[in-house]
Each structure stands twice: as structure tokens, then as C-alpha cells.
Amino acid sequence: MHTPPHPRTGVWLIGARGSVATTAIAGAAALRTGAPATAMVTEAPGFPADGLPRTADLVFGGHDIAHTTLAKRAEQLAAAGVLPAGLPDRVRAELDAADARIRPGVPQGHGSEHPADGLRRLAADIAAFRTEERLDRVVVVNVADTEAPAPARAETEGLDALTAALESGAHVLPASSRYAHAAFTAGCAYVNFTPSAGARPPAIAELAARTRLPYAGDDGKTGETLLKSVLAPMFGHRHLRVRSWAGTNLLGGGDGANLADPAVARSKLDSKSRLVGELLGYPVDDHLHIDHVADLAERKVAWDHVTFDGFLGAQMSLQFTWQGYDSALAAPLVLDLARLMARAHETGRSGPVTELAFFFKDPLDCAVHDLPGQHAMLLAFAERLRRAGGPA
């Protein structure tokens, strides 16, 4: 009996030479050689993964404005402890192949390229990747640096007005939304793993609706916020009233340097700060800080101090510290999302995929914020994907 070939799925990474992208590409290559899939949710025992594209079949490319090769970046990550020693050499061929597919991106500022021409170029790059690699579909995932909040104009214009503005030469979209626009124009699903605007501007969401494509986001939930989504419901279930929740995040590497800009940090802080109040249902005295500590390199440290009232007003507190490699936490989730979104696209899903809230700090159009509730949604969604046939 003839066995049909597995579908070939492309993963087009925005910020393709960054730490998260490099870790994802190197990690996928390592999994092909039998490395354990620890931290990949879709590889957990009992997860209904039938029908999802295999990680071994993912093909990588992307956009970036950086010039450091993937092989060199992987060597740096291995030296920092993110990747296992020796892995960059073992997967050098896969890194070089992906690196050859990376195309010049767009800067977060305006740049010199005409905005409409830039969008056409980005979409053409993605479409060429799908054709040249003979891919069944492509998922575009934004893992680039966080950007400052979107221009006010991008938050109000419809698609037709936006198109006219772009053709006139007006720079009205932030970089993350330009990539989302290109993804939908090229017929691809889109994932925003950052707190940047992405597909949130109404005109971009309208484009997704017109092209009947799925998208998900925003801002991958990898560390401190992951713990908040577990701990905050605990206080609610025990009827303990939280009075304040202060958090300090210490970041090294390029992410920390990027977030040292207060305007950029505001996007991240806005994404992180909404969760506790939404989970508890009342306002909490919330103080969040992000500081760049270059000596931490690829490590991330989060320290939180929570004050709360118990029986008869007894005042108590909780402190916790989270330390880890953010790229190693994020990369497996990127692979999970690529697999799930490719299958969602295959089955005809369009619009915001709210069932993937489990992966995000600030999930699109989803009122469920506690982790167990989000996990139940994810499992039910994966089961529906497993049972689904081809395109709806």
C-alpha cells in the first residue's frame, strides 16, 4: 500500500538570526537525530498530535537585518550555555541551509524603501520560499526584537485607506505589522511571539479576514508571566486578597539591550501587567521593572514580591525567583506553534486562533487567562485538529 508523503511545512522566522530563531532551528535539527523533545508541548505524553506536521519535516527560512550567520550565532549560544556543547558543529549543514534562505528584512524605523514596494518584496520573499522548497504551506512567526507601540494611525485605518496611504509613500505601519501584512498577502498563517503590534491593527486584521487566514499571538509566555498565570488563580481559589504584586526582570543579551529603551519596554510591560488584574477580577497595586544587565548574557532573572491579606486581615507575602535561558524556553514553543498553526491552516481555520492562548502573555480575543484553563482549551483544540479532515 502506498503511504502518502508527509506534508512539507515551512517556518518563516522574522528575526531569523536572533537567539530564539537560532535555538529553534538548531533544536529542530537536533530532534531529527534523536535528541529528546523536552519542553515541546506538542510532544508531551498524551498530547493529541496526530495530523500535525512532524518537526523533522519543518523547513526554515526568514527575514532579518542582522548579518551574523546562524552557525556563528549557534556557537555563541553554545558558549553561553543555551545550546549543548558541540551541537552547532553537529547541525552545521542544517544551519547553513536555513541561513541561505534568509532574506533582508525591514528596519523598525522608516528606512529608505518605499513602503508599498517593501511590502511587496517581503511577500514575494515568502512566496518564493514556499515555491522553491516545494512546501505545502508556510507559517510566519515573528520572533524579532520588541518594538515601540504602533503609530496611532495604524490603530484606526481600514485596509483600503491603509493601502492608499502606503502607495502614496506614507510610513504608517510598524515593522511587525508590515511582516504580518506580507504573511497574509503571501497566503500564510501568522504568529506574533512578541508584544509588538503584529496583526492587531484593524487594517491587518481586516486583511487576514479577506484572505481567510489564521493568526495567533501575542507575546510568548515563557517565564515570570507563566508563573503568574498559575499563582494568581491560587489566591483567587483560596479567597486570599492580593494587595500588591511587584516584579523586577533582569535581562542580558540583545533582548535586554533592546528593552533598555523606555519606549520599547513599554510594549513589554503593557503585555505583562494586565494578567494579574484580569485573573483576580480586581485592581492590584502592580509595579513592574525591566533592567538590562549585560553580564547575564543569555540568562534572564525575574524576582517577584506579592503581598496579600488572609483571615481577619492577617498580612502575608510571597516571594519567588525565576531564572533561565529565555531562548531555550521560547524556541520549543515556536516549534509547537508552527505545527499547530500549519494544521489549523490546513483545516481551513481563519481569524484569531484563541485556543492557543496557552502560549501567550496577552492572547488575542481570549478571556481565559489561567494556565490550567488555557491548557484544557489547547488540548480540546488539538483533538479537533486531529479529527478534522482537509480544508473546510
TrEMBL record:
Pfam families noted in UniProt: Inos-1-P_synth, NAD_binding_5
Alphabetical GO biological process terms: inositol biosynthetic process; phospholipid biosynthetic process
Q: Identify the residues that the record assigns to the Myo-inositol-1-phosphate synthase GAPDH-like domain, covering every copy.
A: 223-327
Reading the lineage from the top rank, the first entry is Bacteria
Any one GO molecular function term: inositol-3-phosphate synthase activity
Q: Which InterPro entries match?
A: Myo-inos-1-P_Synthase (IPR002587), Myo-inos-1-P_Synthase_GAPDH (IPR013021), NAD(P)-bd_dom_sf (IPR036291)
Family listed: Belongs to the myo-inositol 1-phosphate synthase family.
Q: From the Swiss-Prot or TrEMBL record, give the protein name.
A: Myo-inositol-1-phosphate synthase
Natural source organism: Murinocardiopsis flavida
